[in-house]
TrEMBL record:
Organism: Polaribacter gangjinensis
Pfam families: Band_7
Location relative to the cell: Membrane
Protein name: Peptidase
Membrane topology designation: Single-pass membrane protein
PANTHER family the record matches: PROHIBITIN, PROHIBITIN 1
Entry-linked CDD domains: SPFH_prohibitin
GO cellular component, as recorded: membrane
Band domain mapped to chain residues: 30-194
InterPro entries found in the cross-reference section: Band_7 (IPR001107), Band_7/SPFH_dom_sf (IPR036013), Prohibitin (IPR000163)
Length: 276
């Protein structure tokens, strides 16, 4: 006996319902967007005026019309590093390696994308950084760039970038100059010069220290000589005799055996002939 094929009998309108559900599912999937942490979104209205600059959408689940597109960008602080070839004040080529911290203005994200495009870092930030770096580095010599001017250069580049990006809906928060690379010959010359300057300062310090020590010893010797002079002037023969008598009386009271000859010493002072 042959097997009969199984037949499914859909109710009237069943196929239409399934098709409708599939269409609704597709429309729903096209209409929902999830914006991640630290991100913001703006809507591109396909049948409207393009980017909607009135509203920035925050983190979480968002619903948009299926014919529109949600553009999502990071709105938290970000950083970009770059290495630029710039010229110093004397025309020497210098390579500056730096990092920039920036963030878009959240409420003006739509205006930023509408005026500068989705790739606004390349269109707006990179040219501003390069222009500021060239302007600032061009004010200094290689020696200044290599040694003591690093923090000043960072602040001046930051100031320049903020002026360039004023009213451009993009804020630069900080500039860090990681490294300044000079040609090897220039770098070696600067290091040799700095070493010689350090040795010269050390030599001058030693000379100054020795000079102060000599002055101290001279003052000490002069003080002792003056004290001896004053003491010698005050020691008359009478005072010396009195001091001799005092010493004799103390010795006479000592338990050690001795012979004291009174009046036999120079200037009539006693002579001690014996002791223990």
């Amino acid at each position: 006996m042959a097997n009969k094929p199984i037949e499914f009998n859909f109710p009237k309108g069943g196929i239409f319902t399934i098709v409708l559900l599939v269409v609704l599912l597709i429309v729903f999937s096209k209409s929902t967007v999830t914006i991640g942490p630290g991100e913001g979104g703006v809507v591109f209205e396909r049948f409207g005026d393009g980017i909607n600059t009135e509203k920035t959408y925050g983190e979480g689940f968002q619903i948009v019309a299926p014919w529109n597109r949600m553009i999502i960008r990071k709105v938290r602080q970000q950083s970009v590093s770059d290495e630029m070839n710039v010229l110093s004040i004397n025309g020497l080529e210098v390579r500056v390696n730096g990092t920039i911290w920036y963030e878009p203005e959240y409420n003006n994200l739509g205006l930023l994308i509408k005026t500068k495009g989705e790739d606004y870092e390349r269109e707006l930030l990179d040219p501003a950084i390069n222009a500021a770096a060239r302007s600032v580095v061009g004010r200094y010599t290689p020696e200044q760039l290599y040694s003591s001017k690093r923090d000043v250069i960072e602040q001046e580049i930051l100031d320049e970038v903020q002026i360039i990006l004023k009213d451009q809906y993009l804020r630069v928060k900080r500039v860090l100059v990681k490294d300044v690379k000079l040609p090897t010959t220039i770098k070696n010359a600067i290091e040799t010069k700095l070493k010689q300057e350090q040795e010269s300062l050390e030599y001058e310090f030693r000379i100054a220290k020795a000079k102060k020590e000599a002055e101290r010893q001279q003052i000490d010797a002069e003080g002792k000589a003056k004290a001896n002079q004053i003491l010698s002037a005050s020691l008359t023969d009478k005072i010396l005799q009195e001091k001799g008598i005092e010493a004799t009386l103390k010795l006479a009271g000592s338990e050690n055996s001795k012979v004291i000859v009174i009046g036999s010493g120079k200037d009539g002072l006693p002579i001690i002939l014996g002791n223990q």
